[in-house]
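Tokens for chain A. Residues wanted.
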């Protein structure tokens, strides 16, 4: 693990520059592909471009602690710009390219960003008149600009390279906004100290080695795409690939073949889309370079694990992190036995327990709060502008309360059950929706499923399932009964959905997580409408 001094360090230096004092300086750091071109950049190339970017920011008056935000598609400028922003001592933030006006404006206004780096195609999503606090809007695709706008290429040419500004471990590095269960998105501040954990989890969880080509499919607008799509691989001196094209199974399989991808980090949603393309397509491409596949973003269901074994001869391994944790804390490590459906075990050195609402540790198989005992290197430092919200995470005897519910088995494996608000209490039993959803999706007629608790005057709640059927399967009472019997046989009688509603699609976040609160809201509206008749 990296040994950091309290002062005189910089995440960007550790990520890129130190490799340029070794043989890695001429090693490819980034393979980039889009619909028109393919490019490659060595560690020395990234150092030069990020030094130039840092010099530009310094010349424009950016100081240590200023917020520099990027609203860009996945292009090389995003990657060397992030490194350059850190070199200038700024706190860097990213905005997912799919965000629209209100989402963008809240994040920019809350952060107090002084610089925004973007693309002209995105300007129509910004209310420029309301961005008076932003001193400079830098366009990556324009040479001719006027007014408040600056041209990246012109400004870079005017600037002298700048070496990394030294900061302290505890200084802010990344400001990531994440949605909460209530209210607007909150800004999570991560520090330069996270470098130690990002490098270490790259070694132990991602199993990165010097000869690896690594592909994280997540967008840097999200925590996984930032930490494990930039910093963790580059801290370990790994070569990585970025594909900016729209999802196409053929392109994905071709990337693995052409770039000899050996470590692949993606999500259950992406794997399911590949599953739907069929096994025949995989056979058209050589996939023998792969040795390690990981998943993140939502719990990894057993059927995806089985598909991975059949498709690639590799067991896909689940991982768990949050924006607030800053790094992977639970995982199925490369040498650990896998229990399909489990998130894995806490990483060594971490105290992660299942506790009740009073901070008492719960015995095996009892569902409760997934909690972590502070602190760890990548842990968030604060919630931007909301100190009380930060304190709320540690309200139970100093534990970090993740908001996820789970249970541990007798061997210490952790089994995700859903967000705390999603737990169903029926006839006194606490039931996690994820386990039922996973089992429903193993039924041959079911494509996807979402499960909620529906208010019931006798049982408190009953279990209701929203089911999307596979193509060509028709809903009906007989199928509902068949599915209910299947759950009773596979799980237990108390896990059987008392109601099943067949729908065309489930509400999901951009990362593919089922939004159960939307299903609950729709159900409550139905109940109210019925009562008002």
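Reply:
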């Amino acid at each position: 693990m990296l040994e950091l001094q309290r002062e005189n360090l910089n995440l960007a230096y550790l990520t890129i520059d130190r490799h340029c004092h070794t043989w890695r300086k001429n090693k490819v750091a980034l393979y980039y592909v889009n619909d028109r071109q393919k490019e490659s950049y060595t560690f020395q190339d990234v150092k030069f471009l990020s030094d130039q970017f840092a010099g530009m920011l310094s010349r424009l008056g950016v100081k240590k602690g200023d917020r520099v935000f990027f609203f860009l598609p996945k292009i090389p400028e995003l990657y060397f710009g992030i490194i350059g922003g850190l070199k200038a001592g700024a706190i860097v933030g990213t905005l997912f390219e799919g965000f629209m006006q209100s989402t963008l404006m809240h994040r920019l206004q809350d952060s107090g960003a002084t610089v925004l780096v973007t693309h002209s195609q995105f300007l129509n999503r910004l209310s420029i008149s309301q961005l008076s606090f932003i001193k400079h809007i830098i366009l990556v695709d324009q040479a001719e600009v006027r007014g408040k706008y600056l041209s990246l290429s012109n400004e870079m040419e005017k600037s002298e390279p700048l070496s990394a500004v030294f900061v302290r471990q505890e200084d802010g590095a990344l400001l990531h906004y994440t949605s909460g269960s209530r209210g607007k998105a909150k800004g999570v501040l991560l520090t330069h100290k996270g470098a130690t954990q990002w490098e270490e989890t790259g070694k132990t969880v991602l199993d990165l080695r010097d000869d690896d080509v690594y592909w994280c499919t997540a967008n840097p607008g999200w925590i996984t795409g930032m930490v494990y799509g930039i910093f963790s691989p580059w801290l370990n001196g790994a070569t990585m690939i970025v594909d900016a094209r729209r999802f196409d199974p053929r392109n994905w399989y071709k990337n693995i073949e052409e770039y000899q991808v050996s470590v692949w980090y993606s999500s259950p949603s992406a794997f399911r889309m590949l599953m739907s393309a069929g096994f025949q397509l995989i056979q058209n491409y050589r996939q023998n370079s792969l040795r390690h596949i990981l998943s993140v973003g939502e719990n990894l269901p057993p059927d995806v694990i089985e598909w991975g074994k059949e498709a690639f001869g590799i067991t896909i391994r689940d991982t768990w992190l949050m924006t607030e944790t800053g790094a992977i804390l639970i995982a199925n490590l490369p040498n650990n036995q896998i229990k399909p459906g489990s998130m894995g075990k806490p990483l060594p050195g971490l105290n992660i327990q299942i506790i009740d609402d009073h901070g008492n540790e719960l015995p095996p198989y009892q569902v409760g709060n997934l909690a972590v005992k502070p602190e760890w290197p990548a842990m968030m430092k604060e919630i931007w502008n909301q100190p009380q919200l930060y304190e709320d995470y540690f309200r139970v005897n100093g534990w970090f309360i993740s908001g996820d519910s789970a249970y541990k088995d007798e061997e210490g494996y952790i089994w995700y059950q859903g967000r705390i608000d999603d737990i169903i209490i029926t006839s006194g039993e606490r039931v996690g929706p994820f386990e039922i959803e996973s089992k429903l999706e193993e039924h041959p007629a079911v494509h996807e499923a979402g499960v909620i608790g529906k208010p019931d005057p006798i049982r408190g709640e009953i279990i209701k399932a929203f089911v999307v059927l596979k193509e060509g399967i028709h809903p009906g009472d007989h199928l509902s009964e068949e599915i209910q019997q299947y759950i009773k046989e596979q799980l237990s009688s108390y896990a059987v959905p008392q109601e099943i509603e067949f729908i065309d699609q489930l509400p999901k976040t951009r990362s593919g997580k089922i939004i159960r609160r939307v299903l609950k809201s729709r159900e409550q509206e139905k109940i109210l409408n019925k009562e008002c008749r």
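Residues 96 and 221 are 4 Å apart (CA to CA). The first strand starts at residue 28 and ends at 33.
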